[in-house]
Design brief:
single chain, alpha+beta, two-stranded antiparallel sheet, globular
Length: 88
């Protein structure tokens, strides 16, 4: 079965629910009947793009790790960690 293609507008709508409304990835995926990993990928891409879009960011000296932690209730929590790798 071929993979379903979603419009960028739809992806943005789904990601905004996670970012702006602070809903869990699992609850958003469930409400749109999407695979959790799909929504996770969209959110990760959004965050990665925004990290490099920040004003004054040169892309040098900062390592960014983004991960998902599963809570005891089965929901997910995003964890973002930044560290300076050399003087800017």
């Amino acid at each position: 079965m071929p993979a379903t293609r979603y419009s960028e507008e739809f992806k943005d709508q789904v990601v905004r629910e996670v970012i702006e409304k602070e809903r869990t990835i699992s609850s958003v995926a469930s409400s749109y009947d999407l695979v959790l990993q799909t929504v996770d990928n969209w959110v990760a891409r959004y965050r990665k793009e925004r990290a490099t879009d920040q004003e004054g960011y040169s892309g040098e000296g900062v390592g960014v790790w983004v991960g998902v932690l599963r809570r005891g209730d089965g929901s997910f929590l995003w964890a973002n960690f930044c560290r300076q790798t050399k003087s800017l």
